[in-house]
Amino acid sequence: MSGSQYTYLWRPLQLGPVTVRNRIVFAAHLTNYAEDGMPSEQHAAYYEARARGGAGLIITEEHSVHPTDWPYEKMIHAFHPEVVPGYRRITDRVHAYGTPIFAQINHNGGQASSMYTRLPVWAPSAVADPLFREVAKAVDELEIAEIVAGYAEVAARCKEGGFDGIELQCSHSSIVRGFLSRATNKRTDGYGGSLEHRARILHEIVAAVREAIGPSLALGVRLCGDELIDDGITIDETVEVAKAVEANGHVDYINTSIGVATASLFMIEASMHIPPEYAMFIPSALRKAVNLPVVGVGRFKDPLQAERAIAQGHADLIGVVRGQIADPDFAAKARAGHHHDIRLCLSCNQECVGRMGLNRWLGCIENPRTGRESVPLPPPVRAALTKHVVVVGAGPAGLQSAISAAHLGHRVTVLERDAEPGGQVRWAAKVPNRAEFGDLVRNQVLECDRLGVDVRYGVEATVESVLALAPGAVVIATGAVPARPWWAPPEPDPADNGAGFADLKVIDVLDVLTGRFAPTGSVIVIDELGFHQATSVAELLADRGCTVEVLSPGMVVGQDLGITLDMENWWLRAGKKGIVQTTDSVVVGCEGGALTVLHHPTGATAPKTADWVVLAVPAAPADHLYRELRDRCAGTAIRVHRVGDCVAPRRAHAAVVDGDRIGAKL
């Protein structure tokens, strides 16, 4: 499908006084780019890249409207007049590409923390938030008026800063949503009780903001269609609120969301385990009820999905956030008919949502430029200084090294032992609901093809074969190999799947994924990595009919799944599949065909038996070729580098960062 064949995506649309040139929205999301509460140069460069890449509309992350609202450290404090120069820097850079940009303004209400303000958080009622666990101060009517005035003041400041519109965040983390929801609004005055009364603050804010910005700016409201909590907002109530908002005549469009950021965040920024377009019922219902343009969101990975949703009447615009985090040129590539060249988002949540959860700036597992747009790229190497770069290994680290080196102008050859690229990523993508992870390698291979990188498969690299290519530089990306714990017995024979093996059959997760062994019966999976390795293989084996127990020394199995928002759904799936989770336990020995397991809290040991034991434990770097080449090339002009797991076994994002950094230095 060429860009011209998209019937709906490239149709302009009017949002009040603002015309958007296409229907792809870079919707609001947190970035952690603020510096001392102010918009930063990184903000400007980040949004500029998406404007240059063809987004029809950009909506910034939230700006706080009141000093009581400071839920996370690096928030834009729009209640300070000093934000205006930073606003101007952002809007001028985005407007240079003819793209409108709206500011989302908000007060998080009870979904906040007193950590930074040392003040009680404000909310409709004295209800504790499930994440921060602070009982809020129920605001009185004077304080409500102060909040409303804060919205109006900040909206006027955004107008001064050059924004084309304002979006009111009344959805997944907002004091307005707190008022709208029966779960958090227990008031008995004119702001509580009936839906009409619960929506009163929303209408007051809308009216105050419209008065502050006048008719020349667009105004939108983002509503939560379903909180996914007990006694929370439902789609029927949201439809009624949307109708009332439209009837007031102040609003130009409605944006949507699902869930509550501090209770059901795993459904707001859903990982690859949740189907694309999963929240489409919300904009679909609103679009049937109102005439205002409606924005749909919910894991849109490619332009065809967005086109289909608009064509089927579910929404007028589509929010593509992680897709444009991964590829700022998402819209431009689609419009040019190069949709196959789009760097598809994996929905892995590792470097975007995950880094944010760790209070770090937003990045992307497969795009090293994300979060560093303000850092100048190294200039291309002068022709006289170009090298022949030989990369050994076509996993994420090796391919990224090749991409970065080729961008500089070097001639690059990649040698891969296997018949296809990907390294361990290709096996990780074979477990239940993780196929999209394979897009990491698909995207890298396409980029290598575009840059003219010569990738040779089925080649076992040696010192001699590498040097025979006359390289100017060598990058070793040979990955890691499974390591057996001290207590493990010898490995069984894969020829008969361990049938004649008398001792406990202990193998690695890679042995299962590659099909080298096929465990049956009862299986203990040992989780010392705290991520997808153990949980994914546990599900795979349970689906094959095995009885599975996951044993972890941690307090929870797969403890790092929490930061990628995979924990809650893992628990649900594990329960349905009968997977037992045993925590606070570490293997301290193996004898008589049984594991000896120490229970940390009590210090007691007990035997555990199974037909098979599958290890998800730290691997060992496969660095022998690096060491041999380094020694052979000592004293020569050939520089030998290593990247990824052969430096230190880590996760895929580290491999990509390693490859990008080394490739850019060649």
What does this structure look like?
With 666 residues, the chain is an alpha/beta fold. It has 3 domains: 355 residues, TIM Barrel, CATH 3.20.20; 145 residues, Rossmann fold, CATH 3.40.50.720; 125 residues, FAD/NAD(P)-binding domain (3-Layer(bba) Sandwich). It is 30% helix and 18% strand. It contains 21 helices and 28 strands. The strands form 7 sheets. Strands 3, 4, 5, 6, 9, 10, 11, 12 and 13 form a 9-stranded parallel sheet that branches. Strands 16-15-14-17-28 form a 5-stranded parallel sheet, with helices on both faces. Strands 19-26-20-21-22 form a 5-stranded parallel sheet. α7 links the parallel β10 and β11. α7 packs across α8, α13 runs parallel beside α21 and α18 packs parallel to α19. It is globular. The two termini are 38 Å apart. The relative contact order is 0.09. The mean pLDDT is 96.
Brief overview:
The protein is 30% helix and 18% strand.
Q: Can you tell me the residue ranges where pLDDT is under 50 for at least 5 consecutive residues?
A: none
Structural class: alpha/beta
Q: How many distinct domains?
A: 3
Mean pLDDT across every amino acid position: 96
Strand content: 15-25%
